[in-house]
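Example: TIGR03088 family PEP-CTERM/XrtA system glycosyltransferase.
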Amino acid sequence: MHICHIVFRFDIGGLENGIVNILNHLPEVGYRHSILCLSGYNPEFFARIRAGGVAIHTLNKRPGKDIGYLKRLYGLLRALRPDIVHTRNLNTLECQAVAWLAGVPVRIHGEHGWDSGDARTRRKPALIRKVFSPLISRYVALSAETEGYLSTRVGISPRRIERICNGVDIDRFRPGRPLAAASPTEATLVIGSIGRLAEVKNHQLLIRAFARLLERAGSRSERLHLVIVGDGPCRERLVTLVRSLDIEDRVSLPGASDNVPEAMSGLSLYVQPSCAEGISNTILEAMASGLAVISTDVGGARELVRPGFNGEITGNGNVEALVEALWRYVENPELLRLHGCNSRLRAEQDFSLATMAERYHRLYQGRSHASGSESHPPVAER
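Written out as structure tokens, the predicted fold is:
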């Protein structure tokens, strides 16, 4: 079975990392995959795919309106003749029309979340999704929120929607850094967040809350440290904010990491301050790393974080609520350890990669038709 996965760009990101996990954990026998990138890909990120025979193609879409790439996509699909095309999110949705014209028998579309807090309420994106819906065989929603959006806002029949949550590699992400040093009062508590330094991730909220936490902690502030791992367009703005709050000695912005398990192992507590999310891969990775998680109440956060069990949920954009949640863990290291253990337990029981891969396997097998076609020579292959 040949599956073409269409993405805007194949580079470091939660959506793209999900594709890597799917390809690495589906059975190798009986599957062949091609990744079609509208605007390009990162060769180092592509190298994370361990499955054999995965081809990657780029369509070199220019910024803005560029209908020429649709013609190139049509030609490539006619040459590859896949059994299934699987697009992700709104920016690849128009590729479904090309796949239909190219005669691809099964067309799946995944909704992973939103890039801004108001994206799910705007009328135009919902209308676009409605227009393309007759061309789509099956939808994949990564969270209950996106499933509800598709059924109520877009008008997709629930029978056409499959909800498949992301999974996490519980062998690669494991509990690492212990909280305690000589004693709980002397231990350094490292609060951390990992992700793109973009507006939607709202790291400004975390920095402002951390500054107030330091004020509240008084003499105990010496044992508190904040680490924000990642890079992106908001980096300079965050650096400026840290300087303006005069907390440079307690905050680190080390840039992007190519070893997220190691970065997670250096944390005591994970915070996700986003304005919008789907099912967050980094929250899952933090849970598998044995960390308590504080998240804003967005996207699929409540499907991962159970308040009072493995973390806390705070109001979106609410600095004071985040300070209170942080303070509870500063005051009670034992609660922090307990919630971290519960996070690991949830990751093992409910969110393993094996569970996720099995659900995608059933989806693809249930919606497929054998094509018997020969492949076009790949641009790159692993």
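The chain has a mean pLDDT of 90.
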